[in-house]
Design brief:
The complex is a heterotetramer of chains A (about 100), B (about 425), C (about 1000) and D (about 190).
Chain A lengths: L1 E4 L3 E4 L4 E5 L13 H10 L7 E7 L7 E7 L5 E6 H17 L1
Antiparallel strand pairs in A: 1-2, 3-4, 4-5, 5-6
Chain C lengths: L12 E10 L2 E7 L3 H7 L4 E4 L6 E3 L11 E4 L6 E5 L9 E5 L13 H4 L19 H13 L14 E13 L3 H12 L4 E4 L15 E2 L2 E2 H13 L4 E4 L2 E7 L3 E7 L13 E13 L3 E3 L12 E3 H9 L8 E6 L2 H12 L3 E7 L14 E4 L3 E5 L6 E4 L4 E3 L2 E5 L2 E3 L8 E2 L2 E3 L4 E3 L2 E2 L4 E3 L9 H18 L33 E3 L4 E2 H9 L5 H8 L12 H12 L3 H4 L11 E2 H5 L11 E2 L3 H6 L3 E5 L2 E6 L8 H14 L2 E4 L4 E6 L3 H8 L12 E7 L5 E11 L2 E6 L4 H15 L6 E4 L4 E7 L3 H8 L16 E6 L3 E6 L8 E7 L3 H11 L6 E2 L2 H11 L45 E8 L11 E4 L9 E11 L4 E9 L8 E6 L4 E8 L14
Helix pairs in contact in C: 4-5, 4-8, 6-7, 9-10, 9-11, 15-20
Chain D lengths: L15 E4 L2 E5 L3 E7 L5 H12 L10 E2 L6 E6 L2 E7 L5 H9 L4 E4 L4 E7 L3 H6 L16 E6 L2 E9 L2 E7 L3 H15 L1
The chains are: A alpha+beta (about 100), B alpha/beta (about 425), C alpha+beta (about 1000), D alpha+beta (about 190).
Chain lengths: ~100, ~425, ~1000, ~190
């Protein structure tokens, strides 16, 4: 497979290490009342779709960035790649934006 | 229930040969689905067919249908490296796999079909003291559970497999854990044998019947929607490893499972050179030689979620690198065919056989890449659960809620990272 | 008599005679021959035996689809089983032997199987061999196994070397026949980076075997010209003897180049190279494969594909027979008759299954039977005659059969492509979703006439160019006369009573397919698995479609409704050695060497692999004959005075930033935020599931600067995890990570004289006295006159100990200096064994305890897990099963009988309980002989261990037939108060 | 005079060997310092780099080149740069700190790598065997830089000049890395 790194261009997937579903970037609040349940669902439950999947890849043999890759698990087609940090910051901005309203 | 099918025997083969093979009947019927069954098993793979067989044979439940989306045996029972073994470590696992091993040992006489159960031994190599200690711990656990295990030193390994690289290896072989009763089984025949045994006891095996939805009302599951219409059932037993998440999502469930691709490989046919199964711990490689002469081998999963039933080159190379590091005599053997299967990789590497929170809906899955050797026990224990609504004594730990309780069964100690199990 | 069947013509170099042997008989051929063409030229028809019935087998095809002519090539360790004679280039001294027979090729004892063939029907073995039960493994299976397989591996290490490589291009053209050459020409002329590869040793494809003309010259002359033009282009790379064997995700193609297989010896160069091709566009020009027609006894030597017969005559000047008959269902079969007749070969008959008129002029003297059927053939070791359905018998020594051509769609199916049926050519053509960037041209796409093939290749070359933004040139495609390609599907002769073969190698006949249908194995995959159809070394290239047609007939469905089997890589088999490349022996994986490696080697150290690292395990001294002597001495000397150990392999992570302390507070389970500058703290790191991930220390060198150490085994994983935390969980923190594992050589200096030793090399302006530099202090110092160093007062051994780090370039020098400076203290170097002994004596957990299954609580460090802060793993570490009252805990063990040896891996059973799993209470994780205590000691996990100190339990070890009584004791065998390390 | 002195060695003891069409040489006169701007401190760093080295922060994949100490600057991670320059002393960070002051977090990496220069007409052919990246001049021109994996080893490749590549890989596996290169040279010559 080839992952089109947003900064470095297309790179062979063998430079990367796979982690799993990109929802792992959304770690629950440890002080929530149902923190135990939230952490269980966060760590263990997966949508595991047959189709488009957002997932985390780490460019270990490259620039050490964590990426959120949108890849189809049936065809392996990759339709989007972004830096995980950007994805997290965007989610945070969205959340705090909503919070203000 | 009486066996109403044709009895197979050497005599029968000779008789048919002399009369033009006109007497052979279809190994299973092609029935139309009834409106309702006591149990509908979703998934006509090894585990589903075994479940049907034991439901009929051991628990007297014959108003049973097995629904298969494609052709029976098209799942992982039809695409694996045929290894059977019970060399597990943890108390949640070892008794179950040893139960399975014992069922394998009597399977052919039991279902009157030669699945070529061949106990040629499985040898796991170790390369350092820590590896030896870990295998001693495991071997002892196996023996405490009534299984067989032998700890070999380097000479012991050399005697069995003189053609391994002992002299020049990057990771020298120091010894191995041998389970003499481990071995291989002709995988397709397992599906066909169970299908034949179940069919002859009245189970309806329905191919080309895809489940498209679950009939669930008020927390009770009462049947399935299929490409051949709605089929009612007192109990719906899902058994579709590889597609578990897809099917259970029809019941609104998320599972502690990811689907990954595991590749397997076979070489051209060769005269016998490997007596048993060998696994190479320092690389990612395990191998056996089939009765037809092909070297059947594999390694790690590709490592990313996939439903594609095909893998990529890096893992092919990685596996062959392990092969050449272990046994440099295979360099001139040619790889004939490679394929991929979709694995239910669970969050601790161990499976599930459990009721769900929906009444009447049962789940069996999460076998990672070890489902084949579990086939008989999985079928038996699932049948036990379906028939009696309580888990079989050797399968009490395979619960869906074990992560909530912190009761993981993590043989490899990799944590909630399915691609590492 | 040599080369009795050699005729004029062909693309051979007749000035180069080559001698070779077949089954020990010396024969002669020419450069340009394949083994098959040379065998035919020498009149050899029978070259092997079939898999199951051991029927005589000859040469069937002229290419990689060959199911029959498999030989054992070369000898000794170079022996290469199952080699296709049809693609083996002849070389001087080539040795080939036939395979799969007992006795001679001609008189094979196993041929008795053929007499019992009716008992050996499809799947017969599933129905028998079950009684008595023990007989399967003891008798039946060994017999079956001994008979199985074809060729033989030597059992010796493969003496050749292999290599792998990467290629990048704009356009990859697979196949250098007419369409491939056209495609490469149009893409190459426009300046794209083009790779053209072909499995043959001569490019040109069918043009080399046909008499058709292109641009008013002979086909192969045009091909030669095209190849010359292409090889003059800098942007085009031509690769012969190279098979594109697999299409992988995102346009990656795997290819195998056979570099030296056509040479007597590899001469220390790689025998084969595995190429990974990264291409933007692939134009598949893989041509098509002719398929046979099934009829009675259609497997005899001398029965060949019609296209192969004329290839041998046209390209190789080798006559497959002197009196040739043709059986065809299409116009192409007639070309064999015509071409051979031109060469003066006698054509005895042309049997065309179609009714009507012959499509071309009938060769002189040939009987023509339109609407004809062959029902049987005769000839024990080679065909002698054929019998037609009307009873007519026609003598012939070669029967050329054509059942039409199947496009080579394999690569299009390696991903999601599923071929579609084209009734007009009675064949599957590429369909469905092709691999990324792949286009198919020529015969592979179902264009079967030469003129259309040339045009198609040209067009797709241009299409690739415009896709990629290149401007095509104005050149046009090469031209050829339009030939006729009519076909009417005809698969097997129903009138045949005798067995009619579909899969020649695996002996699958029409009857087997019918039986498979009768027994319910009707899905294509069931058919394949039940009969073994298409599972031979040729993967059914010539067999699958006719078999599918027979099944379709049985079910009353059409061929496309019946389906097609899925083609999987590789296109043709690939040597495992090539897929492994260089990775074997010591080169299997890279080696990491510690800075003291050369020095340790000089000391005669014994090394052990620790992951990729080689570490000194112990340092034998003169007179020490057993490893225990060395290790005991190293421990004793260290505890008595001072020892030095290379600990460079521990992971080191440089952590900087304003939020570095807070970051550590989140990744470690214990508190770190308030660690003072100049201090080190032991830290435990959990996974998010609450299980121990790693332990180590972190030293605070400045307010915003920490240096973390990890275990050797987890160095990479911990770094990756921390980058995940930093980038994905807390991206707003000012914290930065960089590995400095390689930057520093680090040595533990341990023992009562450690300080004294260090004081000799640490520059005097740095006070390292106990007061100025107490236990758990850290700081930057200089050594040996200004060399920068880092000093940590930490102890794994339990002794007064330091770790000192210098830039790696000084590592070798530092160990020599420490040993020299320590001479007065009788310093010893110690290896990983002594390190292990001392940590067990001290009760420190290591890899055997941190095995991914244990919690901080199990390790006796539960209270370190902070509940007052957010850190990885603390929430889920609170789950009930991880906090059971009867949970495991790490304790020490000693043998009740002190002379007993403890064994790691033993399980604990309470006294009086039986040794079975329900009574299993835990296991021994690490053991050592303690020279300090004079007996064996161990660490292990046992239920409620910390509450059971003093209790005696059984350590049972059935796998080594041992069981001893052990006492549960504190894990701190040495200096439980920790006085030594604070000294 | 201290009682003891330490002598430095290089990862490959100054290895140098010629093959037909290609030379393989260890490089050991360059220091490497990792430079990271504190969060929100990039502007200051850019200013300091401009002032001292007259150099820009490079985009990923290309070198910035300075006349000062023959320094080159390239991006190793999202916000992390390597400054490589002529220096053989022990305190490379001190040198860089004297230019950049506290505008960046500095980490000495000089001893972390083996540096091997592969040069000559056959160098691309050699590298094709182990380098998965497209290093054709159209795709990887002079001054291009990338980190990738070669024979299981993380490697940074810098296109220094025509047919001239500098490779950086971990110091501890220097001999394995050298073997990968030498084997490639043997197999392609």
């Amino acid at each position: 497979m080839i992952i089109n790194h947003p900064l470095l261009g297309p790179r062979d997937a063998s430079e990367f290490v796979y982690k799993g579903d990109a929802s792992l970037i959304e770690r629950p609040d440890w002080q929530a009342d149902n923190a135990a349940e939230l952490f269980h669902d966060y760590l263990y439950l997966r949508d595991n779709p047959a189709g488009e999947h957002q997932e985390l890849w780490y460019h270990e043999q490259g620039d050490r960035s964590w990426l959120v890759v949108t890849r189809n698990t049936l065809t392996h087609d990759i339709t989007n790649v972004e830096l995980a940090r950007d994805a997290v910051l965007a989610k945070q901005a969205k959340k705090s934006g909503r919070g203000e309203k | 229930m009486k066996h109403r099918g044709l009895k197979y025997s050497g005599f029968k083969v000779i008789k048919e040969a002399l009369t033009g093979h006109k007497g052979w009947k279809p190994v299973w019927r092609t029935p139309k689905p009834k409106k309702e069954y006591d149990v509908v098993i979703v998934g006509g793979g090894g585990h589903g067919l075994a479940t049907a067989y034991y439901l009929a044979k051991e628990f007297g439940l014959t108003n049973v249908a097995v629904l298969e989306k494609g052709w029976i045996g098209s799942g992982n029972v039809g695409r694996n490296t045929t290894i059977v073994r019970s060399n597990y470590l943890l108390p949640g696992n070892e008794p179950f796999y040893e139960f399975s091993m014992k069922l394998w040992e009597n399977l052919e006489q039991d279902f009157n079909y030669n699945a070529m159960v061949s106990q040629r031994g499985i040898l796991n190599l170790f390369h350092n003291d820590a590896g030896r200690d870990a295998y001693a711990r495991r071997g002892n656990a196996m023996m405490l559970a009534g299984a067989d295990a032998v700890l070999l030193d380097q000479d012991g390994v050399r005697e069995m497999y003189p053609c391994l690289d002992f002299e020049n290896a990057r990771f020298p072989i120091k010894g191995g854990l041998l389970q003499p009763r481990g071995g291989t089984v002709r995988h397709d025949a397992v599906a066909w044998g169970y299908a034949r045994g179940a069919d002859s006891r009245g189970v309806d095996i329905i191919q080309n019947c895809e489940v498209t939805g679950m009939v669930i009302e008020n927390g009770v599951c009462s049947g399935v929607e299929t490409s051949q219409g709605t089929i009612k059932a007192k109990k719906v037993a899902v058994c579709v490893a590889g597609s578990s998440s897809r099917v259970m999502s029809m019941a609104g469930m998320r599972l502690p499972i990811e689907s990954h691709v595991l590749q397997a490989f076979v070489s051209e046919g060769l005269k016998p050179i490997l007596p048993g199964v060998v696994t190479f711990g320092a690389g990612h490689f395990y191998v056996s030689q089939s009765d037809k002469g092909g070297l059947v081998f594999g390694g790690d999963i590709d490592g990313y979620n996939s439903y594609a039933q095909r893998g990529n080159l890096p893992v092919v190379e990685d596996v062959c690198e392990g092969g050449m590091a272990l046994m440099p005599m295979i360099g001139r053997a040619r790889l004939l065919r490679m394929w991929g299967g979709v694995m239910d990789m669970s969050m601790d590497g161990s499976p599930f056989i459990d009721k769900t929170h929906i009444d009447g809906l049962y789940f069996n899955g999460g076998w990672c890449y070890g489902g084949f050797k579990a086939t008989p026990a999985s079928g038996w224990c699932y049948a036990h659960l379906l028939a009696k609504d309580e888990p079989h004594p050797v399968a009490t730990e395979y619960r869906l809620d074990r992560f909530q309780r912190g009761a993981m069964i993590d043989e490899k100690g990799m944590g909630a990272q399915p691609n590492l199990h | 008599m040599s080369q009795i069947n050699r005729i004029d013509g062909g693309l051979l170099d007749r000035t180069q005679k080559l001698n070779f042997t077949f089954n020990g008989q010396t024969l002669e051929g020419f450069a340009g021959d394949t083994l098959a063409s040379a065998l035919l030229a020498n009149g050899h028809k029978m070259v092997g035996r079939s898999f199951k019935y051991h029927r005589p087998r000859g040469i069937f095809s002229a290419g990689s689809e060959e199911p029959n002519a498999l030989v054992q090539l070369r000898s000794g360790a170079y022996q290469e089983p199952n080699t296709r004679a049809t693609i083996t280039e002849l070389f001087q001294g080539l040795e080939a032997t036939s395979q799969n027979h007992r006795g001679s090729l001609k008189y094979d004892f196993m041929a008795v199987n053929d007499l019992f063939s009716s008992f050996l029907s499809a799947g017969f073995y599933y129905k028998t061999f079950m009684w008595p039960k023990a007989f399967w493994e003891k008798f039946y299976e060994p017999v079956i196994r001994a008979a199985a397989g074809l060729g033989r591996l030597s059992g010796q290490d493969d003496p050749d070397i292999y290599d792998k490589s990467f290629l990048h291009c704009d356009v990859l053209v697979v196949g250098a026949g007419p369409s491939g050459l056209s495609a490469a020409l149009s893409a190459g002329r426009a300046g794209a980076r083009v790779i053209l590869m072909d499995e043959d040793f001569r490019m040109g494809g069918r043009l080399n075997a046909e008499t058709l003309s292109v641009n008013d010259q002979s086909g192969y002359e045009w091909a030669t010209q095209a190849i010359a033009e292409l090889s003059a282009m800098d942007n085009v790379r031509l690769m012969t003897r190279t098979t594109a064997y697999g299409a992988y995700d995102h346009g990656i193609v795997g290819a195998l180049e056979r570099v030296t297989d056509h040479l007597v010896s590899s001469n220390n160069k790689p025998r084969q190279i595995l190429w990974r091709v990264y291409t933007k566009r692939t134009i598949l020009c893989a041509g098509s494969t002719e398929r046979p027609i099934a009829f009675g006894n259609n497997d005899r030597p001398g029965i060949m594909l019609a296209g192969a017969v004329r290839a041998y005559v046209n390209r190789w000047g080798a006559l497959p027979g002197k009196r040739v008959a043709v059986f065809t269902n299409n116009d192409d079969g007639w070309r064999t008759a015509t071409d051979l007749a031109v060469k003066g070969v006698e054509i005895t008959a042309v049997i065309d299954s179609r009714d009507g008129q012959p499509p071309v002029a009938v060769p002189n003297g040939a009987a023509v039977v339109m609407g004809g059927r062959i029902v049987d053939t005769q000839g024990r070791h080679g065909i002698k005659s054929i019998t037609l359905s009307n009873g007519q018998k026609i003598p012939t020594d070669c029967l050329a059969v054509s059942g039409g051509w199947s496009p080579n769609v394999q690569l299009t199916c390696h991903q999601r492509g599923r071929p579609t049926w084209r009734e007009d050519i009675a064949a599957f053509v590429p369909g469905g979703e092709l691999p990324l960037g792949m286009m198919v041209a020529g015969a592979a796409a179902g264009n079967l006439s030469l003129s259309s093939v040339l045009q198609d290749g040209h067009n797709l070359g241009n299409k690739a160019l415009s896709d990629l933004g290149f401007k095509p040139t104005t050149e046009t495609a090469a031209k050829s006369d339009e030939e006729t390609v009519g076909i009417s599907a005809f698969w097997h002769v129903k009138e045949s009573k005798a067995r009619a073969w579909l899969d020649l190698q695996n002996d699958v006949t029409v009857k087997d397919v019918k039986l498979s249908h009768q027994e319910g194995f009707r899905a294509v995959e069931h058919l394949k698995r039940y009969t073994t159809l298409g599972m031979a070394t040729d993967q059914g290239k010539t067999a699958n479609i006719p078999a599918l047609a027979v099944m379709a007939e049985c079910t009353g469905k059409s061929i496309p409704e019946t389906g097609t089997t899925i083609f999987r890589p590789p296109y043709t088999p690939v040597a495992i050695g090539a897929l492994a490349g260089r990775a074997r022996g010591k080169d299997f994986r890279p080696s990491r060497l510690t800075p003291s490696h050369s020095w340790a080697e000089e000391q005669g150290a014994v090394f052990v692999e620790a992951g990729m690292w080689y570490r000194a395990q112990w340092f034998p001294k003169a007179g020490e004959t057993h490893w225990r002597q060395s290790v005991d001495r190293e421990v004793t000397q260290t505890r008595a005075s001072v020892g030095v150990c290379d600990v460079t392999t521990l992971g080191k992570i440089d952590i900087q930033g304003k939020d570095a302390a807070e970051f550590l507070n989140k990744v470690y389970a214990n508190a770190f935020a308030k660690l003072p500058v100049g201090k080190v703290r032991y830290g435990i790191m959990l996974r998010e599931d609450g299980i121990m991930m790693d332990d180590g220390t972190s030293a605070r060198f400045a307010e915003n600067h920490f240096v973390m150490t990890t275990t050797t085994a987890n160095a990479v994983g911990v770094f990756r995890h921390m980058e995940f935390c930093r980038q994905c969980l807390w991206p707003n923190m000012d914290v930065h990570l960089i590995s400095s594992t390689e930057q520093y050589a680090q040595f533990a200096v341990a023992g009562p004289n450690a300080r004294k030793l260090l004081q000799k090399i640490v520059d005097r302006n740095h006070d390292i006295s106990n007061e100025a530099f107490p236990f758990m202090a850290c700081g930057e110092v200089t050594v040996c006159g200004g060399i920068p160093a880092r000093l940590f007062r930490i102890s794994f051994s339990g002794e007064l100990a330091y770790e000192i780090a210098v830039p790696t370039r000084y590592g070798d020098s530092l160990v020599r200096t420490l040993m020299a400076a320590g001479e007065e203290f009788d310093v010893t170097a110690y290896g990983t064994e002594a390190l292990g002994v001392m940590r067990i004596e001290k009760g420190h957990a290591a890899g055997n305890e941190l095995n991914g299954q244990t919690t901080a609580q199990d390790l006796g460090m539960g209270r370190m897990v902070s509940k007052k802060k957010d850190c990885i793993g603390n929430t889920l570490s609170e789950r009930e099963n991880l906090n059971r009252k009867d949970g495991l805990s790490l304790v020490g063990f000693r043998p009740v009988n002190r002379s007993d040896e403890l064994k790691a891996g033993s399980h604990f059973i309470a006294k009086g309980k039986s040794a079975e799993m329900v009574n299993d209470e835990g296991w021994m994780s690490s053991v050592a002989y303690s020279p300090s205590l004079g007996h064996s000691i161990g660490l292990g996990f046992i239920k409620q261990g910390s509450e059971r100190l003093g209790e005696i339990v059984r350590a049972t070890d059935p796998i080594r037939e041992g069981e001893i009584e052990v006492e549960i004791v504190s894990a701190h065998f040495i200096d439980p108060e920790g006085e030594r390390l604070r000294a | 005079m201290p009682d003891y002195t330490l002598t430095a060695n290089t990862p490959l003891n100054g290895f140098s060997r010629d093959f037909p069409g290609v030379s393989i040489n260890e490089v050991n006169d360059r220091a490497i310092v990792s430079i990271v701007a504190p969060r929100d401190g990039e502007k200051e760093l850019i200013k300091a780099l401009k002032k001292s080295y007259d150099i820009e922060l490079p985009n990923a994949g290309v070198l910035s080149v300075s006349a000062q100490d023959n320094a080159v600057l390239f991006c190793m991670a999202q916000d992390q740069y390597f400054l490589m320059f002529d220096y053989t002393g022990n305190t490379a960070t001190t040198v860089v700190h004297s230019y950049l002051n506290d505008t960046a977090y500095l980490t000495d990496q000089s001893d972390s790598y083996v540096m091997i220069r592969v040069s000559g007409a056959n160098s691309r052919c050699l590298l094709e065997r182990i380098c998965p990246l497209d290093i054709h001049p159209t795709a990887f021109p002079v001054r291009a830089v990338a980190r990738t994996i070669m024979e299981h080893l993380g490697t940074t490749i810098i296109h220094e000049g025509d047919d001239n590549f500098l490779l950086l890989s971990a110091r501890s596996s220097a001999y394995s890395f050298l073997e990968a290169i030498e084997t490639s040279a043997k197999n392609t010559s």
